[in-house]
Amino acid sequence: MAVFMSLSTQAGCEASACTGLAQAHIMQGQAQQALAWAEQAVAWPEAPLQGHLLYAQALRMTGQAAGAVAHCERVLRHAPTSVALMTSLALAQRDAGQVAAAEQTCEQALKLVPQDLALHQNLANLRQARGALKEAEAGYRQVLRLKPGHPMALCELGHVTSKQGRIDEARACFEAAVRTDARLAPAWRALAQIEEQAGHIEQACQHLIQALQADGRDARSWFDLGRLQMQNAPEAAMAALEEGLRRSPSDKQAWLRLCQLAFARGAFQRGLAASTQWTISQPHEAQAHYFKALFCRSLGRADESLHAARQAMALAPVDALALECLYLQTAAHLDMGDLSAAQQGAQQLDELASGPVQQANVHEIQAGIDILSGQIARGMAHYEASMALLPERFAPRAAICAAALYRSDLGDDSVLGEVRRVMAPFNPFRQPAYFANERRLDKVLRVGYVSGDLRQHSCAYFLAPLLSAHDPDAVSVVAYSTCAQQDATTERLRQHVDVWRDVAHLGAQQLRQQIREDGIDILIDLSGFTDGGRLQALSRRAAPVQCAWLGYLGTSGLEAMDYRLTDEWVNPPDLDRLMTERALRLPRPYVCYEADTSAPAPSPLPLQHRGQVTFGSFNVLQKISPECVAMWAGALQRVVGSRLVLKTRALSNAGVREALCEAFAAHGITPDRLDLLNWIEGQQHHLDLYARIDVALDTYPYNGVTTSCEAMWMGVPVVSRYGSAAVSRQGLTLLRSVGLAALAVPDNDLFAQACADLVSDASALAELRGSLRERMRSSALMDRDGLAREVESAYRAMWRNWCLGGTTL
To answer: What is the DSSP letter of 580?
Structure first.
């Protein structure tokens, strides 16, 4: 091109230089630049014929086919026998929609050069375009007589015979074409279509791969390949769709397929990237915003999900998609703790829902609102309604079991009865006859941990110490993460395991199969019936030995769950009747706490400079049962002038605050003695609030675990009431482990007295505040190596029993 630029500045060379520059730009696909230079070329009286041909071509490339027709006709008056001009005119006429005229032009040119292959090919193409298949077929056969094996003629002959229903002939033509020219992408695509129609999907995919090797720029081939691979090769399908969309981002169906695949496979980050790009390329497409909302919610980004769902609703206010968007909006409000907005959304959904699936979804949304509001019984009733509508759905069954643990009005035996009733369809269980695991007592045990909390979550404070202290000569660890959300904690946990599997997208049967294929000897369930729990998969036994630990404190009610790792304070032997698993008691606290290394130092005792006792609890609202309110009120009455600070997300709702104040008022505690705080984002701000608290009050019947450890780490002692169920004995084992067993008591009166005794000596309380962190650090509660050795010993005992033919110890 540089040579032509130089020539264009020299007298006498202008026309040829401009022609050369136009040619160069056309070869690079730069139509506007080519048109500019060609226009200069044809302006010269001595312009070469090539310049006029390029000018016509550039006009066609820029969508000016009528102008190209006029120019070719004008030049033909001066060169009426130019076959090249006639060919250019025919192409321009075709592009201008003048098909009949284009055919006539080709026929006139053929009278001058009856052996011209290109003219015969163009004429046959024109006839095929207007549906004259017999005439087109004759034209292609003429080309093949003139030049046997002509690849494009074979390809087009394949098209016309295919359109006439002669599929075998068509296949033979396409195969002959690619034998002659393996780079002929249209022939490979046509072969793929034939194989697809015959049901030969794998062969069709292979042909499309050949087409893309010949011409990787063709978006249609990428889209077809992705579509065909969706069922049997979903990962490859996603890659093909992404490749095609990079070339043609306007294809709605391809975006839709990509997002559907990403969601089905749990590839939420990848799906969010795709849906975000879709909203950019097609900002008025409601489904693009809907999928963005869906992926954001799946990744725990509730505020972004809400915004995207609103955009989708604005674009599709009345169709079926609108109901899905309304559901996402409501769920986002619930996730963000905006219970008033969530309640409004639930009411709208209730009015619009039709059919059991939609109605069940509404019941589950309403159940979530009720439980976060502290209305546990009402929430359970909605889950019961969902279960009645969709008996096969596991989620409402799990939610009923989890919610029952918060009920202070249900006896412990009643809770067990509820769990047995709800889980009845999954019992009795018949163990598979065979596991391929090697029954060797001294081998390195392959231990799997299944959890929805392998991220920034309270359970990570207790799981990380064990994983980091495991002896690689004793166990080989496989982690199964059932949550799509990942963060820095995820990456830290990943460093302590041998194999990490993201399994959020797997169904129960798929997860069970994956665990069996991994050859897991002992499977540890860390989530139970909480979010991310996968007990449905474990209910049909995924490993020879299955054990519950840590994340869920109630029983599973499942015969397939063999053991529960615990201690004698959480699950004393005389209360074994309250769980279906066999208790395997560690001779130490069953957990080890890993403190936040960024936590500030404990503050001075507020009582000493305020002269007023401040109690506090940062537990979730659903743990604050009616019995818990009565217990706390007793402590406030016993300690005259004391105050209570509560902090939880649900307290952002005015109705929740009012109901809680009324509950305390019923026990003689006026609202002016309560400080009700909304959730504060950020761990540092959260920990700083302990500077306001003298003594932390545990919840009942569902004790705190992380919250209690966190309070003690900040120098704030915890007073706890224990009962008979494991959920109400967490405070007992934690306090015993740090030498504060006297602060765990069995009834409300002793609870109030323990609180009063603790604050009666401000100097002693201040001394405890200053020493509590070191007391924890030197206790069994933070002895990770001690926990790891005892847990590994327990695993070995479980394994020995299985190898010797037992089910449980």
So the answer is: S
How are beta strands 563-567 and 718-721 bridged, if at all?
unpaired
* pTM of the complete model: 0.83
Instruction: Tell me which H or E stretch contains 287.
Output: helix 286-298
Q: How far apart are CA 307 and CA 332, in angstroms?
A: 9
Is 151 within 8 Å of 180 (Cβ atoms)? Answer: yes
- 600: DSSP letter: P
DSSP bridge partners of 479: 449, 500
Are the C-beta atoms of residues 419 and 555 closer than 8 Å to each other? yes
Kindly state the tokens that stand for 695: 């003594």
pLDDT of residue 113: 92
CA distances from 785 to 447, 546, 568 (A): 17, 23, 20
List of residues 6+ apart from 504 with CB closer than 8 A:
266, 268, 481, 482, 483, 484, 532
As a whole number of Å, the end-to-end CA separation of the chain is: 85
Q: Token digits for 313?
A: 């609703």
Binning the chain into helix, strand and coil, the percentages to the nearest 5 are: 60, 5, 30
Average pLDDT over residues 36-61: 86
Checking if the pLDDT of 159 tops 90, the result is yes
- Taking alpha carbons only, the member of 78, 57, 76 closest to residue 67 is 57
Is 458:706 a contact under the CB 8 Å cutoff?
A: yes
CB 30 within 8 A of CB 45: no
Average pLDDT over residues 435-445: 94
Q: Cα(503)–Cα(499) distance, rounded to whole angstroms?
A: 12
Q: How far apart are CA 397 and CA 535, in angstroms?
A: 11
Q: Are 580 and 417 spatial neighbours (Cβ–Cβ below 8 Å)? A: no
Is the CA virtual torsion 371, 372, 374, 375 positive or negative? negative
- The pair phi, psi for residue 531, each rounded to 5°, is -55, 130
Note the pLDDT of residue 7. Answer: 36
Contact 400, 384 (CB under 8 A): yes
Q: Quick one: tokens of 727?
A: 């959920």
The pair of structure tokens assigned to 729 is 């004995």
Asked if 581 and 798 count as a contact pair (C-beta separation under 8 A), the reply is: no
Give tens-digit pLDDT for 505-537: 899 999 999 999 999 999 999 999 999 999 999
360: burial class by Cβ within 10 Å (0-12, 13-18, 19+)? buried
Per-residue pLDDT reduced to its tens digit, 442-473: 999 999 999 999 998 999 999 999 999 999 99
Kindly state the average pLDDT of the residues 383-389: 98
Instruction: Please report which confidence band the pLDDT of residue 5 belongs to, taking 50, 70 and 90 as the band edges.
Output: very low
What pLDDT, in 10s, does the model give residues 738-767? Answer: 999 999 999 999 999 999 999 999 999 999
pLDDT tens digits, 219-259: 999 999 999 999 899 999 999 999 999 999 999 999 999 99
CB 746 within 8 A of CB 722: yes
Burial 629-660 (b: 16+ CB within 10 A, else e): bbbbbbbbebbeebbbbbbbbbbbbeebbeeb
| Separation between Cα atoms, residue 242 and residue 671, nearest integer Å | 58
Backbone angles phi, psi at 598, to 5 degrees: -90, 0
